[in-house]
Amino acid sequence: MNPLVLRSSIVAAVGGLIFGFDTAVISGAQRGIIAHFGITETRYGFVVATALIGTIIGAVIAGRPADRYGRKRVLVWIGFLFLAGSLLTAISPNLWLLMAFRLLGGVGVGMASVLSPIYTAEIAPPSKRGRLVGLVQLSVVIGILTAYLSNVVVLKLVPAIVSGDPTTVEWRYMLAAMAIPTLIFLALLPTICETPRWLIGQGRIAEGEAVAQRLTDDEEEAATMVAEVRAQIEQDRALNATKAPFFVRQNRKVILLAIAIAAFNQLSGINAVLYYAPEIFRLAGFDTTASFLQSAGIGLVNLVATVAAVSIIDRVGRRRLMLIGTVGYLVSLGTLTVLFFTVIKNNGAESTGSPGGASYLVLAALALFIASHAFGEGSVIWVFLSEIFPSRIRARGQSLGSLTHWTAAAIITWLFPGVVARIGPAAGFGFFFVCMVGLLFWVILVMPETKGVALEDMDEYLGLEEPKTAGASR
Q1: Where is 44: in which H helix or E strand?
Q2: In degrees to the nearest 10, what's the CA dihedral of 20, 21, 23, 29?
Q3: Is 389 helix (H, G, I), strand (E, B) or coil?
Q4: Which of 22, 24, 30 is nearest to 47 (CA)?
Q5: Which of 29, 144, 160, 368 could be disulfide-bonded to 171 (CB atoms 3.0-4.6 Å)?
Q6: What is the pLDDT of residues 107-160, one digit of tens each?
Q7: What pTM, to 2 d.p., does this model score?
Q8: Residues 414, 41: Cα–Cα separation, whole Å
């Protein structure tokens, strides 16, 4: 594989690592934040959800700056948002500032969820695009695992270096730890290139051609890439694509596809599990230390399943991975619903630290759930969203997908701890199970296969009609 393509894809994917870290690191801070600020589980759910509200904002605003200022420059902005969010949340003196700074960091997460896949899709050859864009999701799960391990380290080290009650400050160390991968991200960004598609689209033809030559293995391949990009740009300009309407009939198919895959991703309950994994394990009968270690184990399962999916996504296709993952969702969520509803008796009090057979069945079911997500939805969503939209609306389409994803994540993350505290986790897992029945029908009946299709050919492949004249409806 071309070294610049690989390096640039890996660096862009580090943005995914950071938003994976941000997703999981808060799970270790739950008890400390609740105790420090004296809030309820429902209020804590909103504290967590403030970052997701930020991701909604980031997903909405990312597209136009990326089109105007370039993919690479906006990735730098995202890095600084990550850094500010991690450090400022760690030193927040009150709950309102904590939520405000989590919102700020969340903006960076939402923008990264749009820009990292777009950037990688635009520099990757079609035959390797699924694998390279899949690096974003791989980095997300590496970030999740790193966050869980970081929380375990903080849990062990802080009591040894802090006098008094460590729970009053250890959550601050957990949140501050995200600054480390962020600094690495910022240090590596100068080594990547801007995408040829954006450069040529800005009229910087010579620069775009030079970058295309660096991204390909020979002059013929570079010339083909440039010719395809220029032809697509000329077509878009002929259709007045710079002002191309988005919510119109001709875009309805891809809009509905994007909304569906993004909404189903969160209706699986994945973020509820990632944000509250230690608490779920405590409810299942594990003590605090064991809960954190089990969460790290779940993160490792996530990583292994994602590596497996990314390595074969361009061979077996997107739909097949989705089908396998969805069946796994149904088995695992059904098992968790039954276990919490009929076997595990817990009134919300602290665990006695004596897990039984049902506790280990919960562990196994959660491991299957995470593996199913990582192998299916988790590895496919960002690849699929980066592929299906025509180039003239790709950035806005990716923003729509991310907006749907993070809106659903915010709502579910806010409500889940309150539901668990009031009526138990069985209700939550049962709801997610029903939603995944809907996903199974969607994958079988609606979802198209997009593997190996060049981005410039996706319009034709999906059967989207071209307007006869500029401004005409499609």
Answers
A1: helix 41-61
A2: 170
A3: coil
A4: 30
A5: 29
A6: 988 888 788 888 888 888 766 777 787 777 778 878 888 988 898 888 888 765
A7: 0.73
A8: 9
